[in-house]
Amino acid sequence: MAGSSSAFVSSSNRKTAFATTARYVATDPEISTGPSTDPVDKTLAGIDDAAEHDVFDPLGGEAPALIRNNKSEVWVQQRARPRRNRKSAAVRNMVRENIVTPANFIYPLFIHDETFNQKIESMPGCERHSLDSMLKEVGEAYLVGVKTFVLFPKVPDELKTNLGIEAYNPNGIVHRAIRMIKEKFPESTICTDVALDPYSDQGHDGTVEDGKILNDVTINQLCKQAVSQARAGADIVAPSDMMDGRVGAIRDALDSEGFTDVSILAYTAKYASAYYGPFRDALDSHPGFGDKKTYQQDPSNGREALVEAALDAAEGADMLMVKPGMPYLDIIRRLKDNSNLPIAAYHVSGEYAMIKAACLNGWLDEKSVVLETLTCFKRAGADIILTYYAKQAAQWMAEDELL
User: Fold this and answer.
1) In the chain, fewer beta carbons within 10 Å around the N or the C end?
2) 184 noted as active-site residue
3) Three-state secondary structure call for residue 18
4) Which residue in the list 147, 154, 270, 356 is annotated as catalytic?
């Protein structure tokens, strides 16, 4: 007790009060952890009287850890209490630092030239859409505020070549899809992937010779691809190939054809990650040999992302992307702290698949963990989030009146 010579209470004087008073109850119903709503005697007098062992008394001894306030209640003498800004939903909403909205999302859509949809086994809930189904999906997402989309095609093997010539076919599936979306949803923003891997018979992002990816030859093809996509109506082109110098070349190609308003979202820090497997299942674009470590970044490197960011910005990129997302939050923050350009994070297929698997097994609550994950991207510095959960997350936000 306060002022006593010992911080321990002897067991000899303890009564049966322990059984009836030693209940610690949270009085805020939002954080209540027990069934009882009985008030707590904040003096805590006599709560350990029935204990049959010595109990440390924070209020006792010559140097007590705690003191009492004017009401004789236990008191930690601390002016700053961060919990005051968490005490109710209204206060938490008022002081919230980062808010995610559907306007932050880019919704990736897989498409193929079939009349039916094809489920992607490694990405439950995702499909390869027919073009009619793609329009329906765009419409549903549009209704909940998601208005930016990126298209990824599954290309038939017979159209794949080492030079990826199908990538700039004006009647190819991506070009037709762009025109269809723009006709029905003219205010939508369409982003396109600029890379050869969906169109390559080698399964790589560039043209191959003797097992080597040819940087400059690939960029020649990417310029054709980007211009053809802009002609079809693309608002943003997103080179994901990681060839050196491709952002500047694509910017010049677009500008020379009068597409000065078409933006470039550069895959600036795209890592040679193990998290891409389900995406490659979706596009049937696994590397035909080897891996992509000679052009995608080493996961061990952080500073290297700043080199890529400086180059992409100097070459005319409008936005910088980090891929993957959650395992690379530190890279998102590095780019945010070192660039004035908007930063995008790609919540990639492997991240999506892990959440789905855990939720399907009942190990996680899908809605809660997804919304937390998307908030983590924003907190780390992402202005834009590419996520397969875009439509679903927007629906959850609307249901919870978070918008």
Assistant:
1) N
2) no
3) helix
4) 270
Give the C-alpha separation, 87 to 244, whole Å. 51
What are the angstrom distances between the C-alpha of 378 and each of 125, 161, 284?
Answer: 24, 39, 31
> Of the residues 147, 154, 292, 323, which is catalytic?
323
Determine contact, residues 161/154, Cβ cutoff 8 Å. Answer: no
Distance, in Å, from the CA atom of 126 to the CA atom of 190, rounded to the nearest integer, reads 19
The mean pLDDT of the chain is: 90
d(CA 157, CA 284): 9
pLDDT over threshold 70, residue 30: no
Over residues 284-339, the pLDDT tens digits come to 777 777 778 888 899 999 999 999 999 999 999 999 999 999 999 999 999 999 99
Catalytic site includes residue 270? yes
pTM of the model: 0.86
Q: How far is CA 165 from CA 86, 203, 208, in A?
A: 57, 14, 14
Helices (H), 185-302: 215-232, 246-256, 277-283
